[in-house]
Specification:
Layout: E1 2-6, H1 9-26, E2 31-34, H2 41-53, E3 62-65, E4 67-69, H3 80-89, E5 99-100, H4 109-122, E6 128-131, E7 153-156, H5 159-165, E8 177-180, H6 183-188, E9 192-196, H7 202-210, E10 228-233
Parallel strand pairs: 1-10, 2-3, 2-6, 3-5, 6-9, 9-10
Antiparallel strand pairs: 4-8, 7-8
Helix pairs in contact: 1-2
Length: 244
């Protein structure tokens, strides 16, 4: 595990963006897994600016969506795809053919999961997965107790996640289910980048990085990944014993 601690969220976002750019430049056809949420939003802002300013060709990059709420897709304000469209895909004019994203409105959610797994395989696997950390230790929509052997699957959303997730919507939404890449997908990625910031994540981060690895703390399972990097600000890292 590689631990990077910076003074601010701005610094995390800038450094993480540099790492993503390195991956994009390392091969012609890169596959990136993109999470939505507050944690990677700054990273996407930095990436958009850098790619535009330096005229970087991303036509060969394939983007795999990490997760989506059941019953929603990019047409639903507040959905995972909606946020990524606004923050990243649309500003960079990413073509739809280069995006593989769960459609939570698909008539057969299980087949939708298979479609995403097939897309990952067809493109040679994920080069880098960008993920955040949930308040209960989830990653993607892999909630506590989820088998680490699962690939893409239909998830039952933990009450804590349902409560926290309401912040993405203007009015209360039913978000008891989701479609998500599994821990197995993330473990098969060539590299995984976890971004965590703020005091509110300090306690759960300490558990994830320092307590016993367990499916009850899904993000802790990533510590077994051979190329796992964690980008933190000093607030999120404040309770860690070892910050180097």
């Amino acid at each position: 595990m590689n631990l990077f601690v910076y003074e601010s969220y701005e610094s995390i976002s800038a450094r993480a963006a540099e790492s993503v750019i390195e991956v994009i430049r390392s091969k012609k056809h890169t596959v990136l897994c993109t999470a939505s949420g507050d944690s990677p939003a700054g990273l996407y802002k930095k990436l958009v600016a850098y790619i535009q300013q330096n005229n970087i060709d991303i036509s060969g990059v394939t983007f795999i969506g990490l997760d989506e709420w059941l019953g929603m897709n990019g047409n639903d304000e507040g959905s995972c795809r909606y946020h990524l469209n606004n923050q990243f895909f649309h500003p960079l004019n990413v073509e739809e053919k280069n995006i593989a994203f769960f459609d939570g409105r698909a008539p057969d959610p299980k087949m939708e999961c298979k479609k995403i797994d097939d897309a990952i395989e067809a493109h040679g696997g994920i080069d880098m997965a960008i993920v955040g950390l949930g308040m209960n230790g989830h990653v993607g929509m892999n909630e506590p107790g989820t088998s680490p052997e699962l690939h893409s699957h239909v998830a039952e959303i933990d009450p804590i996640t349902q409560q926290v997730g309401q912040k993405y919507f203007k009015e209360k939404k039913e978000i008891s289910g989701g479609l998500t890449l599994g821990i197995a997908n993330l473990m098969e990625a060539k590299s995984v980048m976890l971004i965590v910031s703020g005091n509110k994540k300090a306690e759960i981060l300490k558990q994830v990085l320092e307590e016993e690895i367990s499916e009850e703390l899904p993000a802790s399972l990533l510590r077994n990944h051979p190329n796992f990097s964690v980008y933190l600000d000093t607030e999120a890292a404040s309770l860690l014993k070892n910050k180097i």
